[in-house]
Input
Amino acid sequence: MTNSDQKANGPKINIDNREYYIDSLPDEGKGLVNGLKTADNQLMLYNDTLKLINISKQKMIEDLRKIIENVEPA
Output
């Protein structure tokens, strides 16, 4: 397998509807791609955290509604 064959089978990134082989990017570009991957992973992590917080909040509201069923409103 030649070096160009290896690049042809390597991972790509799509920017502005154009595909680029990550291995063909300069080192600075590869570093930015790694930074983008890290940012995507952090976004997924925080989105999952926000979903869990929202589920917890909804449960607390549900529990509070049950508690105040027999409480006279102000």
